[in-house]
């Protein structure tokens, strides 16, 4: 085949094939070996003394047993600081770690994806005064891949093994391979932080990062009044009585999971819960059959099936006034006219487009420039439907009230205000 007849995009005839980039070396062993896991009060006191003698930032990580145990508590906590090396703490054996708080509160914590670990660390008595989030730094820089493995590859030129990220960290004793993984995760963080800090400085984003990190240091997970509504698909159940069954099953599952210290899904999967709520069974046997069709791994025995069925019966017998509402959080929206809903939809689409363009110019994702939740609320804010109220000062005040950081307001205010003005009447 001559070059003029090659398929589109094919390299010219005779060119040597492009070589694949060589695979990066695997970081296989911690620099100082695998540390001993500390699980006694005496060991914790020694750790406190080591941290007090150390200097500089502290790399922090935590391992949970998500999908295995109830809640999101930390089972292993990893720390590393100049002068201390890597420390592995058996958080379940030690309980509270607040003895370490005085020696950590004044240091900068370096974490990857801080919102994942801060709640479980706070449960153990550890709260940062300030932090550096390596994942958020990568996102602020506009990197498309910002998982720890990808960030380590880009900053340090080595690979991390990630095969133990979803294991049951409540296992005791912890296998050596898992401890090696845990030690390496925290070992790389300080070096990664330094590279990212330099890149933020070069991009002129250090001040933005500092604002974001100060905001993250105050992070606390949202508390939901009706957590059962967070089951994916529950909002599509056909009637209020079906919602009542879903609520009853969720509450029974949560109580039993807490007592047994098991992840709720290990007792009854969300899929099975929704199947039972969609078509409430008429007997315990029918209940077992429905569960068997949706999750064969967790079919209950006769006694347990009777408990689940009793919850279904109780919910099915509730009077009308005791049934949960269909869409409690959406009640105000139901009073909007169709024309108003159409205007909100148009305003939201225009806001997203304008923010995407501004974010692209800043080399970051639009969700970093302004929270998608804030954008949705802004699109539906009735006062900004009137041109008389669309003033930069009012929009800036709205963004401040909705927790936007100063740098976000500075960068997003002009395009947001322009869109609101264009769509106001």
Automatic annotation (TrEMBL):
Residue intervals of the HRDC domain: 239-322
Gene3D superfamilies per record: HRDC domain (1.10.150.80), Ribonuclease H-like superfamily/Ribonuclease H (3.30.420.10)
Family matches, as SUPFAM superfamilies: HRDC-like, Ribonuclease H-like
Compositionally biased tracts (Basic and acidic residues): 323-341
MF GO annotations: 3'-5' exonuclease activity; nucleic acid binding; nucleotide binding
Listed PROSITE patterns: HRDC (PS50967)
Disordered, as annotated region: 1-33, 319-341
Nuclease among keywords: yes
Entry superkingdom: Bacteria
Record keywords, A-Z: Exonuclease, Hydrolase, Nuclease
Keyword Mitochondrion attributed: no
Gene Ontology process terms (BP): nucleobase-containing compound metabolic process
PANTHER family (UniProt xref): RIBONUCLEASE D
Name this protein carries in UniProt: 3'-5' exonuclease
Organism: Sediminivirga luteola
């Amino acid at each position: 085949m001559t070059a003029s007849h090659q398929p589109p995009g094919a390299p010219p005839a005779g060119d040597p094939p492009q070589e694949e980039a060589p695979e990066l070396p695997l970081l296989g062993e911690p620099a100082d070996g695998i540390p001993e896991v500390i699980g006694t009060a005496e060991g914790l006191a020694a750790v406190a003394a080591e941290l007090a003698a150390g200097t500089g930032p502290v790399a922090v990580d935590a391992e949970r047993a998500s999908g295995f145990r109830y809640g999101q508590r930390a089972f292993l906590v990893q720390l590393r600081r100049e002068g201390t090396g890597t420390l592995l703490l058996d958080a379940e054996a030690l309980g509270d770690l607040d003895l370490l708080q005085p020696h950590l509160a004044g240091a900068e914590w370096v974490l990857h994806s801080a919102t994942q670990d801060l709640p479980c660390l706070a449960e153990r008595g550890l709260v940062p005064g300030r932090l550096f989030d390596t994942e958020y730094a990568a996102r602020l820089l506009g990197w498309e891949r910002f998982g720890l493995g990808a960030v380590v590859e880009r900053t340090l030129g080595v690979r991390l093994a990630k095969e133990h990220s979803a294991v049951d960290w409540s296992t005791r004793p912890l296998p050596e391979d898992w401890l090696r993984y845990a030690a390496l995760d925290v070992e790389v963080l300080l070096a990664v932080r330094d590279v990212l800090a330099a890149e933020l400085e070069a991009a002129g984003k250090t001040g933005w990062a500092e604002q974001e990190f100060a905001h993250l240091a105050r992070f606390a997970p949202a508390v939901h009044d009706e957590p059962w509504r967070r089951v994916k698909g529950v909002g599509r159940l056909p009637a209020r009585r079906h919602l009542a069954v879903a609520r009853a099953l969720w509450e029974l599952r949560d109580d039993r999971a807490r007592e047994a210290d098991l992840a709720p899904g290990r007792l009854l999967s969300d899929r099975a819960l929704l199947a039972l709520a969609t078509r409430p069974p008429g007997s315990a046997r029918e209940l077992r059959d429905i569960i068997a069709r949706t999750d064969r791994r967790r079919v209950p025995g006769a006694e347990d099936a009777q408990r689940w069925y009793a919850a279904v019966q109780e919910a099915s017998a509730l009077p009308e006034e005791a049934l949960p509402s269909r869409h409690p959080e959406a009640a105000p929206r139901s009073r909007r006219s169709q024309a108003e809903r159409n205007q909100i939809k148009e305003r939201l689409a225009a806001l997203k487009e304008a923010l995407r363009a501004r974010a692209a110019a800043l080399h970051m994702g639009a969700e970093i420039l302004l929270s998608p939740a804030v954008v949705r609320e802004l699109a539906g804010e009735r006062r900004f439907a009137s041109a008389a109220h669309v003033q930069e000062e009012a929009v800036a005040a709205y963004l401040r009230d909705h927790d936007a950081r100063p740098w976000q307001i500075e960068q997003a205010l002009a395009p947001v205000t322009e869109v609101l003005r264009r769509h106001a009447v």
